[in-house]
Design a protein that fits this description.
about 270 residues, alpha+beta, 3-stranded antiparallel β-sheet, about 40% helix
């Protein structure tokens, strides 16, 4: 479907920032990506240590203001909503529970916020999110989950053999390229600019930078407004691709878990 003039204008104005949170002061494990379709360098990536994160984000933005931001790390909105910042909790969140049962448990289960590792990620993600909100109050910040964002688009055949933890997103990335899943998704998000973007994102090799790129796609999906939202109440939500990109096994499992969910605890599909 061709893009209308208004949609084309929105492509030119969009600047999506993705941050894959790491929490090491020694190892460069935080991935950062900016997708800005009309910039001379439309896809920019880097990976840095925790201490370098905020300055690296300012540098990689090159003076641009993000219209959408997505962060891979537990984010819980304040009692007054996202625009008032994010708060710390120590609990197993509703959105995590929804992707932790049934088929999702083996294919794209999130970690829990109330584990030691989850708390470390949560603190750093919350710090980065609140800092970015101060710098860019016009941007709505959402939570990404790259493994699930990619995972629900994967054919069931790749799960016949267990995929070792830590390499799932790399396997998903390779399948997504080979089967042109990512090409189709990016075309739906960026229209005529998708070909230009492909010259830049296909060359991303670093694990954390790839995850940050998926975070940036999550941000763009949120901005377009057609993604699936995994909502657990007032303790946060995940942004996943549009339902049209889900594999049948993921749609069936989503519907099953919706039927099992308590009243008032919905998927926003």
């Amino acid at each position: 479907m061709p893009f209308t003039p208004n949609q084309m204008e929105s492509q030119e104005m969009t600047v999506s920032l993705g941050v894959d949170i790491g929490f090491s002061s020694e190892v460069a494990s935080t991935g950062i990506c900016v997708i800005s379709p009309t910039h001379i360098e439309p896809v920019r990536v880097m990976h840095v240590t925790t201490k370098q994160t905020l300055q690296a984000i300012r540098n990689i933005l090159r003076g641009e203001c993000p219209t959408s931001i997505s962060i891979d790390g537990p984010l819980v909105p304040s009692a007054n909503g996202y625009l008032q910042g994010f708060r710390l909790v120590n609990q197993y969140r509703g959105c995590e529970k929804k992707l932790s049962g049934g088929i999702f448990q083996k294919r794209c289960k999130p970690g829990s916020t109330n584990t030691p590792r989850g708390q470390a990620l949560h603190r750093q993600a919350t710090y980065v999110a609140n800092s970015l909100l101060m710098d860019h109050p016009e941007s709505r910040i959402v939570e990404a989950f790259p493994n699930a964002f990619l995972g629900v688009m994967m054919p069931s055949t790749i799960f016949k053999q267990p995929i070792r933890r830590g390499i799932k997103s790399d396997v998903f990335w390779q399948v997504g390229i080979r089967r042109k899943i990512l090409d189709r998704l990016i075309s739906s998000l960026y229209g005529a600019y998708s070909t230009r973007l492909s010259y830049h994102w296909r060359g991303i090799k670093n694990h954390d930078e790839r995850a940050a790129f998926i975070c940036a796609l999550s941000a763009r999906t949120s901005e377009v407004g057609n993604g699936v939202t995994v909502w657990g109440g007032d303790d946060g939500e995940f942004i996943l691709p549009p339902a049209a990109f889900f594999q049948s096994w993921a749609i069936n499992e989503l519907d099953k878990r919706l039927a099992l969910a308590p009243k008032g605890s919905n998927w926003g599909r």
